[in-house]
Amino acid sequence: MDCDPGHDDAIALILAGAKHSALEILAVTTVAGNQSVEKNTKNALNILEVMGRKDIGVSVGATRPLIKPASFAAQIHGDTGLDGPKLPEVPTLKPTAKHAVDTIIESLKQSTEPVTIVATGPLTNIATALIKEPSITQYIESITIMGGGTFGNWTPTAEFNIWVDAEAATRVFDSGVPINVFGLDVTHQVLATDEVIQRFAKIENPIARFVVELLTFFKSTYKTHFNMDGGPIHDACTILYLLKPELFTMQHTHIDIEHQSALTYGTMVVDLSNVLQKENNAYFATAVDVPKVWDLIENILESYAQ
Ligand code: BDR
Ligand code: CA
C-alpha cells in the first residue's frame, strides 16, 4: 500500500489490515501528498499502532513529485495530515531503513504470487519504481488507484492525487500493467454523513472510535471547502473493491493524463465513449452499491473486537 495518510487513507489501511482480512499487506510505503512525507509517515506508523499491526513495515518515499514542487492539502486533512484523533507526537513504531521505492521493488520480486499495488496518494513512488526497475511489471497483478475521475476537486478538471504528480501518473498509465481506477465519480457517492458516523459510533471498540473521530473531522472540512454533507471515503474504495469487486461497476476504457497544459494540468482524460479507439489500459469505476459499502465497513469494524 502506497499512501499519504490522510483520513481516507487511514480508513483504507484499517479495512485492509483487519484481523481476518482476505488481504495480506506486504508493506506500507509513504509519499508526499496530503502532507509532507515525514508527517504522512508518522501518521501511517500511528495508524498501524492503533490497528495493532506492528508486524507491517513502513518505508518512507518521495519527498516531492517528479518535476513539480510539493503541494499539500492541509485545508482538508489539517496541519498534521490527520487532524481530529489524538495521536502520539512521536510514534512508538519506526520506519524501515529502506526507501519506499526499493521496498516496492523488493516486495514485488520476493513475492511468490503476483502483487496488487494499492496507490492512495500521488503516484511518485510507483512511477519511480517503474523507472528504476522496469522488469517489475511482470510481478504486478494490478495497480489499484484512487485518483482522477471525469471532474476535479483541486482544479475544475483535476483531482488532487493526479494533479500533484501528473508526470508520475502518466508513467503509470503508460506502463501496460492492469490498472483499476477509483475516481471522484464513485468516491463522491460514498459520503460519510452524520447518519453513517452515528451508525459506526454504536460499535464499541477503539478502532471504530478512531474511525468515528476521523470521519467527524473529515466531514467538517468537506462541509467548509466543498459544501458537502459528509467526507467521501475516497481511498477506501480501492480496498472495498479488492475485498468485494461485485460492489463496483467497472468500465474497461482508455485513460490518458494531461501533464502539459497550464489550464488542465493533472486532468484524467477518460475515453468512456471510445472516441479515440485506443487500446484500453484501465478499468474505471462508474458505479458503487453504497448501502452494501456501509454494511461491509460496519462488519470489518466490528471484527476488530474479536
Ligand atoms: C484524494 O486526495 C486526498 O486528499 C485523499 O486522501 C484522497 O487520496 C482525494 O482527491
Ligand atoms: Ca490519499
TrEMBL record:
Keyword field contains Hydrolase: yes
Leader peptide range in chain numbering: none
GO cellular component: cytosol
GO biological process: purine nucleoside catabolic process
Keywords for this protein: Glycosidase, Hydrolase
Enzyme Commission code: 3.2.-.-
Keyword GTP-binding included in the entry's annotation: no
Molecular functions (GO terms): purine nucleosidase activity; uridine nucleosidase activity
Top-rank lineage group of the source organism: Bacteria
Domain called Inosine/uridine-preferring nucleoside hydrolase: residue spans: 1-295
Name of the protein this chain belongs to: Inosine-uridine preferring nucleoside hydrolase
Species per Swiss-Prot/TrEMBL record: Staphylococcus caeli
Gene giving rise to this polypeptide: rihA
